[in-house]
Design goal:
Length: 234
C-alpha cells in the first residue's frame, strides 16, 4: 500500500500535486519492486489515478496487480451522506461512482440504493443533487477543515477493505482505480470502475450498461486523467 507523498494543502488541486509526488512515487515503486517483486500494489497517493498509472508503468507489473483506492473512498463518502440524509444504516446503502478521483468523477444516482431501492425513489432530485455536489467536493471540504493536511481516516479504512478482499480472496466487487485497455471504450488510462478483487488482485473488470449521457461523462472524466498522464509519459 503506497501512501508516500505530499498531502494536499488548502486551495491546492490534485493536479498541482502531480509534479511533487511523481518523483516520490517513482522511487517508492522501484523499491517495492526490488524488495517484493511478486506483490500487489494499492495506490493511495494523490493525484490517485495518475499515480496508479505511474506505478503500473514503473513496476511493469501486469495490470491486475496495480490498482488505486479512489472509488472505494468516493463511494464511502456518498454512502455516508445518503445514510445521514435518510437516517438509515450506512451498511444498507450502496453507491456507484466511476471515473476520475476528483471533481470529474461520474456519480450514478440511479445505481445508488438503500436495501435495493434506488435513492431516486427515496429522495427528491434537489436533495440528490446536493449530495452529489458535496461528494464531488468532499476531499477539498476535508482539506479546508483540517487546514494542515488531507483526509486520512476514510482512505485508511478503504485501503484496509481492499487489502482484506485480496488477502482473504473474497471475490468482492469494489470500485477501484484500474488500468483500462478497451473496457468502457477507454484505452491506456486509469480510472475507477467496479472490479472483482481476490488473491490475484483484479480478477475481473465489471462493465456496466451506461446511458449515452453517462458514457459521455465517463469519457470526459477519463480525458482529465489522460491530460495528467501526458506529463508522466514525457
Amino acid at each position: 500500500v503506497i501512501t508516500s507523498g505530499v498531502s494536499r494543502k488548502p486551495g491546492m488541486t490534485r493536479e498541482e500535486l502531480l509534479q511533487i509526488n511523481m518523483n516520490i512515487v517513482t522511487e517508492v515503486t522501484r523499491n517495492v519492486v526490488s524488495y517484493s517483486p511478486n506483490c500487489i500494489i494499492i495506490m493511495v497517493t494523490n493525484p490517485l489515478d495518475a499515480m496508479t498509472y505511474l506505478a503500473l508503468r514503473t513496476s511493469r507489473f501486469p495490470k491486475n496487480r496495480v490498482m488505486g483506492l479512489s472509488g472505494v473512498l468516493d463511494t464511502a463518502r456518498l454512502r455516508s451522506f445518503i445514510a445521514a440524509e435518510l437516517n438509515v444504516s450506512v451498511e444498507d446503502v450502496s453507491a456507484c461512482i466511476l471515473g476520475q478521483h476528483g471533481e470529474k468523477m461520474v456519480i450514478l444516482p440511479r445505481l445508488c440504493t438503500v436495501c435495493g431501492v434506488p435513492i431516486t425513489q427515496l429522495l427528491p432530485q434537489e436533495t440528490i443533487n446536493r449530495l452529489v455536489e458535496r461528494t464531488l467536493k468532499a476531499g477539498a471540504e476535508i482539506v479546508g477543515l483540517l487546514k494542515t493536511g488531507s483526509a486520512f481516516y476514510a482512505p485508511s479504512a478503504g485501503a484496509t477493505q481492499m487489502v482484506e478482499a485480496i488477502i482473504l480472496d473474497k471475490k468482492q466487487i469494489l470500485p477501484c482505480a484500474t488500468y483500462l485497455d478497451g473496457e468502457y471504450g477507454i484505452k491506456d488510462t486509469v480510472i475507477s470502475v467496479p472490479v472483482k478483487l481476490g488473491k490475484s488482485g483484479i480478477e475481473q473488470i465489471i462493465e456496466l450498461e451506461l446511458t449515452a449521457e453517462e458514457k459521455s461523462a465517463l469519457a470526459n472524466s477519463a480525458q482529465a486523467v489522460q491530460e495528467l498522464v501526458k506529463t508522466i509519459k514525457r
